[in-house]
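Service request form, structural biology core

Requester: graduate student, group of Dr. S.
Request type: structure prediction, single chain
Budget code: on file
Notes: please return the result as structure tokens.

Sequence provided:
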Amino acid sequence: MAKALFHKSQRVFVKPVGTWALIEKVVPHWVKDVDEPLRVTYECGLGRSFQSHELAAEESLARDSHVLRPDDDDSLLEHWHIARRRAKWRASIGGLGISDVGTYPVVVTDEDDQGGWRVTGGEYDRDPQRIEHQARMIACTPDLLQTVRQIADFCQEKPDDCPSELKQVAQRCASILRFVYQLDDAAEVDSATVAAE
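Core staff response, request fulfilled:
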């Protein structure tokens, strides 16, 4: 039988989506003639219900005071990739440098090859090279965030070995991580402010 591990209005990290959310509703799934629910799911306002293994409490994730350490929990590591989908709107899209004419890029961000980043046909037609570039950038984001975290950690753990130029880069890396993982006051800052720092 299942017990609720989280409560309504609790802030949790939603692993499949990679973002923080508040639990809006705790939904027990009952079976006739059983005293406890068979399972418990949680609605976080993200389009579907999540099970407890897909969520993590704030206390268990924020071990460090300034950055979230995704590599401490392998389930938080994202593995995004680019898939090609057939264009329904026009079979001849694409141009020089695009290997699969008649397709467009989709960045797949979940394990079922369903969810992710897509563009409309009109947007792709306007500037295919730009959309292809954006797809490559988005697919590399999890690896770049891991590199950013390694730089920030290195300078925090060995401040004497870190050159002054790298210390400024490490501070910027820590700021980006705080914004991405919505830690402390950085959750209130919008992306334009973070980019301007």
